């Protein structure tokens, strides 16, 4: 337990931890400020009146629209629009709205831009993005903490005082995971509060009912587990390569060119469902719960694509297997290889 606490203190007191912490907080505050600044409760009455005047001017130059507005039976007697009355969207429209929608009349909304930040609709996906970035940062921090000890010789000194290598590796990995969990909880709570404040001030909160909480908590929990897996992978790569650059190179290499190479290879091989080779696809399936991939190459004359469904369980098996594989390799390497 003392070793675990000392590892936690060492991670917390590192200069890189402070830098990453400041960057994460600044990024989260910046995101909330941006969402609040570009959002509004709605256009002003003057802006709506000006936009409506422009729409009326354009409509005066559209003879089809004018004819539609004047003739209440326009859709009945026009062979080109006889299908309109069977359209479900037509049922809740008055005649002028139907003319605008189906014939192509202009509306005030076409000449004015207004964005309202909806906490109910957008906050879950913003929180997922925040936690994914948090996972990437903790992944780099964990690999840096372990790699720096190998580079400085501190790992060899630790093994003199703590000859139980598995206990030492467990304490370091556990400390990294604990730090990641704390960061995920803190960023999720702070992000929720800041985005809620932005929506209350400049947007709309919406109806945060039971199904919304269930869906949002599911997304957040799965993304938090993904962040823990990323942290464990970063620590394992650093322990396996015994250098921060090894883990950083693998991470940066895949983020920058790895997925591009996978897509290029899959295109040249003309294989079905090439997106299944990308870890981004599996990570997305893990977070959202389900992803459907379509393959049109064998659709034939009926133009019906083949469908491949990836569930969160399938994604969890693959992503968890990758983390466990590198964790097992790092454990074996640390247990068998010399400290030098």
List the keywords.
340 residues, mainly alpha, ABC transporter permease, elongated, 2 domains
Description:
There is one protein chain. This protein folds into two domains: about 1-40 and about 120-270, no CATH class; about 45-110, no CATH class. The mean pLDDT is about 80. It has about 350 residues and is mainly α. The two termini are about 25 Å apart. Helix content is about 70%, strand content about 5%. It has a two-stranded antiparallel ribbon. The longest helix has about 40 residues, at about 165-200. This is ABC transporter permease. Keywords: Membrane, Transmembrane, Transmembrane helix.
Short structural summary:
The chain is mainly alpha-helical and 340 residues long. The protein has helices at 2-13, 15-38, 45-60, 63-70, 74-77, 95-103, 119-152, 154-161, 165-202, 210-241, 244-269, 279-288, 312-336; strands at 290-295, 306-311.
Radius of gyration: 28 Å
- Helical segment count: 13
Give the overall form. Answer: elongated
Question: How are the strands ordered across the major sheet?
Answer: 1-2
Strand content bin:
under 5%
Distance between the termini: 26 Å
Q: How confident is the prediction overall: mean pLDDT? A: 82
Order of helices and strands: HHHHHHHHHHHHEEH
Total number of strands: 2
Percent in helix: over 70%
* Structural class computed from helices and strand pairing: mainly alpha
Low-confidence stretches: none
User: How many structural domains are formed by the residues?
Assistant: 2
Major sheet size, sense and barrel closure: 2 strands, antiparallel
């Amino acid at each position: 337990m003392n070793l675990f606490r000392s590892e936690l203190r060492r991670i917390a007191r590192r200069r890189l931890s402070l830098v990453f912490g400041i960057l994460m907080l600044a990024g989260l505050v910046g995101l909330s400020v941006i969402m609040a600044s570009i959002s509004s409760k709605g256009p002003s009455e003057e802006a709506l009146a000006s936009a409506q005047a422009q729409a009326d001017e354009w409509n005066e130059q559209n003879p089809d629209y004018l004819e539609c507005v004047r003739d209440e039976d326009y859709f009945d007697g026009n062979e080109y629009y006889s299908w309109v009355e069977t359209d479900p969207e037509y049922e809740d429209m008055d005649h002028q709205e139907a003319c605008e929608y189906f014939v192509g009349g202009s509306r005030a909304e076409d000449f004015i831009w207004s964005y309202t930040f909806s906490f109910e609709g957008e906050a879950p996906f913003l929180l997922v993005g925040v936690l994914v970035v948090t996972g990437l940062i903790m992944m780099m921090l964990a690999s840096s903490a372990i790699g720096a000890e190998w580079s400085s010789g501190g790992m060899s000194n630790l093994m003199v005082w703590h000859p139980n290598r598995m206990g030492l590796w467990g304490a370091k990995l556990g400390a990294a995971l604990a730090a990641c969990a704390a960061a995920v909880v803190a960023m999720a709570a702070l992000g929720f509060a800041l985005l809620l404040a932005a929506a209350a001030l400049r947007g709309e909160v919406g109806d945060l009912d039971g199904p919304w909480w269930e869906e949002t908590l599911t997304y957040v929990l799965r993304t938090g587990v993904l962040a823990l897996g990323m942290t464990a992978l970063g620590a394992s790569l650093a322990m396996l390569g015994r250098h921060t650059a090894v883990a950083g190179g693998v991470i940066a290499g895949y983020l920058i060119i790895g997925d591009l190479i996978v897509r290029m290879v899959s295109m040249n091989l003309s294989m079905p469902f090439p997106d299944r080779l990308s870890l981004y696809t599996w990570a997305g399936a893990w977070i959202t719960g389900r992803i459907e991939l379509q393959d049109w190459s064998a659709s034939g004359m009926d133009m019906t694509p083949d469908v491949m469904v990836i569930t969160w369980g399938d994604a969890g098996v693959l992503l968890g297997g990758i983390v466990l594989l590198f964790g097992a390799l790092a454990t074996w390497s640390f247990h068998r290889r010399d400290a030098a």
